[in-house]
Design brief:
The structure is a single chain. By secondary structure, the chain is of the alpha+beta class. The chain contains 18 helices and 37 strands. A hairpin with a 2-residue loop joins strand 4 (about 120-125) and strand 5. Helix 17 packs parallel to helix 18. The chain is elongated. Mean pLDDT is about 90; it is low at about 1-65 and about 80-90. Pathway: Glycan biosynthesis; glycogen biosynthesis. Keywords: Carbohydrate metabolism, Glycogen biosynthesis, Glycogen metabolism, Glycosyltransferase, Transferase. One of its GO terms (cellular component) is cytosol. Monomer.
Length: about 800
């Protein structure tokens, strides 16, 4: 897990001016009745609350007539419509409608009605067709249809209703008069539900694997009309209304209907399209209201603003070749070296599209096979580095639109670079405009407050046992892979999900049904997520950041281990033990390292228990831990030499590699999200620039040799791919070992973690290879080293050593790693 800083999001937007009050005293049937004064109309000319700023609505002038103040975009009329003293043509025969009951009227106007479509729109009644419209601020409403123009009598409070002498419901529009202008709009309440029964059934079962196509805001054609369907899951709500800049953040005229027992609310708004800001106004069980961003929003405002945005992708991908071949080789048998990036700070100020012009070229030049983005899902506080997510389906708007993000991924794919993304299903922040107690009661989080509260980060955990919540998260994993062509998900903080007692004191947690501390719901969720992603998205890899010895993190879900659990189903797991032990070793003064030799060799005892990634991530170069080069003891030369030797050891060790940005050129300062890597260290005018450029040149060579040497990756998960030459050379601080490809072709790696040259250092080697040569030496002058090495061909000598019949006599450079291959 990364930063533990609170999300820091501003408070939610207050109730918009003019919003209808909660239900009050009983209502009569005339305008101006006691207890419910008509809401004020917006300023003349259509002044609109943007709703985008979390600090509260501001107003900006809008051209007169472009919108219906209580509705979607409409066609502006000319004159304000017929005079009130003159009956419009075709309106004769309109009879007054039976008034709504006080209860229905109060609930409808108060935003607490589950079935507004049952009250509004057109309904056959005895003697004709009852048509009722809710248009706050309107002075009059006229129904327009072929051969029909009928003005509806006012019922007060923005309600207009009448019984038309019709037997069937025509295709009609509404001419709404606001005094200084009129608009012609479709009636949202004449449409059938735009969400199908199959979608609701799959969601109820927790099996809607493309949930983003069912919930949220989706532009579509419905009953021959183009508009936007809004859907949201809020099973505890008394009522839900859509608010946005299209209705001046007053949802009185836009109550949604409840779709049975599903807990889903729906409303189709004709004429509404891409780019509109919106939220959901929810009436809680206690009658209070809250305005919430859409949990399924695919685009958001740029923080600190918090509104959701209606989005439709227009991107045309150009990575078909990449997508077709990315799964050709299993990832654990393929080269896999990762450059971890915090996008907002890699080059501060760059957009997704400007990043696409620089990042792929940089990563390709250094030879990394993949980039890994720290979380890109929307988050309110930049200091959280993205690990406190409020918009699980939206790339952060800080650097552009979702299509801009697609452009960046496409550019990386076309450069031959895979894209991994940090994914955070372990917790979410408590911001009162986001997921926390979304509909007035715990919904995404467990009901028990003690169980819901994450003990370390001040956040809330997900309720993995709730079907709909599990569906929300599983579909989210699929969403990033299918919609954005993400090649892998690194799942954050898995350990905190797996254990009920994670960071909790005795008595502060409740055992599972078997009396254990395992979170069975989280186990089932992770298994389902992995199985679903691997089934739907060929070539995608999932990676667990799991810091304990949980058995079977990368075992198949259907293979039950000794603990009685099936595997979690991940493809790879971060090797946190190797990271901790190896960094602890190299931070020691060389004179003391012999006493810690086992910390470097211990990893090979469990190296094949999982499919591992060796991570030197952002977490290891912040919060006082120091940058990688600064962890090394000694003077500046020794620090750089130790840094280079460590990278050479890491790239040769079984497992995949991950290196955080800035460490590829030995940045001495810790990373800070406010300014990113210290690129000035590579400026040619800087006196020490060659020191940093040399380390970066080494990283390039490590990746080049790595990709070309199957012995370094083909058998990463097979014990036959590794053999110690001498695992007990603690007095020398030397670590020599062999790596083997599937065809048994070898590579020797030997690291000298002492600051002294070791001459005539003998190592036993396989006897079938008569000669060897250096292919990499981290002490070369071009990397900033002293130039000690073994030029030319090294001939195997018939001197038994290390249990082998032949051996090599080498010169080991100080604080350096050598790689040798058969000549």
């Amino acid at each position: 897990m990364a930063a533990s800083t609170p999300s820091g999001s501003p408070p939610s937007r207050p109730t918009p001016p003019g919003a209808a009050p909660a239900p009050g005293p009983a209502y009569g049937g005339a305008a101006g009745r006691p207890g419910h004064a008509a809401a004020p109309r917006p300023p003349a000319g259509g002044a609109a609350a943007t709703g985008g700023s979390a600090a509260g609505p501001t107003f900006a002038a809008r051209p007169s007539g472009l919108r219906d103040p209580a509705g979607a975009p409409g066609r502006t009329g000319g004159p304000a419509g017929p005079s009130r003293t003159e009956r419009p043509k075709g309106s004769h025969g309109v009879r007054a409608a039976a008034p709504l009951s006080d209860e229905d009227r109060g609930r409808l106007l108060g935003g607490a009605h589950h079935d507004p479509h049952g009250l509004l729109g057109a309904h056959p009644v005895r003697g004709g067709l009852l048509l009722r419209v809710l248009r706050p601020y309107a002075k009059g409403v006229t129904v327009l249809a072929k051969g029909l123009r009928a003005e509806l009598p006012s019922e007060g409070d923005g309600l207009f209703a009448g019984v038309l002498p019709l037997r069937t419901v025509p295709d009609y529009e509404l001419l709404v008069d606001y005094g200084d202008h009129t608009v012609t709009v479709q009636d949202p309440y004449r449409f059938l539900p735009a969400l199908g029964e199959l979608d609701l059934h799959l969601f109820g079962e927790g099996r809607h694997e493309q949930l983003w196509q069912a919930l949220g805001a989706r532009i579509m054609e419905h009953q021959g009309v183009t508009g936007t369907r809004f859907t949201v899951w809020a099973p505890n709500a008394q009522g839900v209304r859509v608010v946005g800049d299209f209705n001046y953040w007053d949802g009185t005229g836009f109550p949604m209907r409840s779709l049975g027992s599903s807990g889903v609310w729906e409303l189709f708004l004709p004429g509404l399209g891409e780019g509109e800001l919106y939220k959901f106004e929810i009436t809680r069980p206690d009658g209070s209201r809250t305005v919430r961003a859409d949990p399924m929003a695919r685009r958001t405002e740029c923080p600190p603003a918090t509104a959701s945005i209606v989005e439709a992708s227009h991107y045309h991908w150009n990575d078909a070749d990449w997508m077709a071949r990315r799964g050709a080789r299993p990832v654990h048998e393929a080269p896999f070296s990762v450059y971890e990036v915090h996008l907002p700070s890699w080059r501060p100020g760059l957009t997704y599209r400007r990043l696409a012009a620089q990042l792929p070229a940089y990563v390709k030049d250094l030879g990394f096979t993949h980039v890994e983005f720290m979380p890109v899902a929307e988050h309110p506080f930049g200091g959280s580095w993205g690990y406190q997510v409020t918009g699980f389906y939206a790339p952060t708007a800080r650097m552009g639109t979702p299509d801009d993000f697609r452009f960046l991924i496409d550019a990386l794919h076309r450069a031959g670079i895979g894209v991994l993304m940090d994914w955070v299903p372990a917790h979410f922040p408590r911001d009162d405009w986001a997921l926390a107690e979304f509909d007035g009661r715990p919904l995404y989080e467990p009901q028990d407050p003690a169980r819901a509260a994450h003990p370390d980060w001040g956040t809330l955990e997900f309720d993995y046992g709730r079907t709909e919540v599990r569906n929300f998260l599983v579909a989210n994993a699929v969403y990033w892979c299918e919609e954005f062509h993400i090649d892998g998900l690194r799942v954050d903080a898995v350990a905190s999900m797996l254990y009920l007692d994670y960071s909790r004191e005795d008595g502060g947690w409740t055992p599972n049904e078997h009396g254990g501390r395992e979170n069975l719901d989280a186990v089932a969720f992770l298994q389902e997520m992995n199985a679903t992603v691997y089934r739907r998205c060929p070539g995608v890899v999932t990676i667990a950041e799991e810091s304990t010895a949980w058995d079977g993190v990368t075992r198949a879900t259907h293979h039950v281990g000794p603990g009685g659990f099936g595997g979690l189903g991940f493809g790879l797991k971060w090797n946190m033990g190797w990271m901790h032990d190896s960094l602890g070793y190299v931070s020691k003064d060389p004179v003391h390292r012999k006493y810690h030799h086992g910390e470097m060799t211990f990893s090979m005892i469990y190296a094949y228990s999982e499919n591992y990634v060796l991570p030197i991530s952002h977490d290891e170069v912040v919060h006082g831990k120091r940058a990688l080069v600064s962890k090394m003891p000694g003077d500046w030369w020794q620090q750089r030499a130790g840094h280079r030797a460590y990278l050479g050891f890491m790239w040769a060790h079984p497992g995949k590699q991950l290196l955080f940005m800035g460490q590829e050129f030995a940045q001495g300062a810790e990373w800070a999200e406010s300014h990113g890597p210290d690129w000035w260290l590579l400026d040619s005018s800087y006196e020490a620039e060659p020191d940093h450029r040399g380390v970066r040149d080494l990283v390039r060579e490590l990746n080049r040799h790595y990709a070309a040497t199957p012995a370094l990756w083909e058998r990463d998960t097979d014990p036959a791919g590794f053999s110690w030459i001498d695992g007990e050379a603690s007095e020398d601080n030397v670590f020599p070992f062999l790596r083997f490809a599937a065809d048994r072709s070898p590579l020797i790696s030997v690291t000298n973690f002492s600051p002294v040259v070791r001459r005539a250092y003998r190592l036993g080697v396989p006897d079938q290879f008569p000669a060897w040569r250096e292919v990499l030496n981290t002490d070369e002058p071009r990397y900033g080293g002293s130039g000690v090495g073994n030029p030319g061909v090294l001939k195997a000598e018939p001197t038994p050593w290390n249990g082998r019949p032949v051996s090599l006599s080498l010169v080991l450079p100080p604080l350096a790693t050598l790689w040798l291959r058969p000549s």
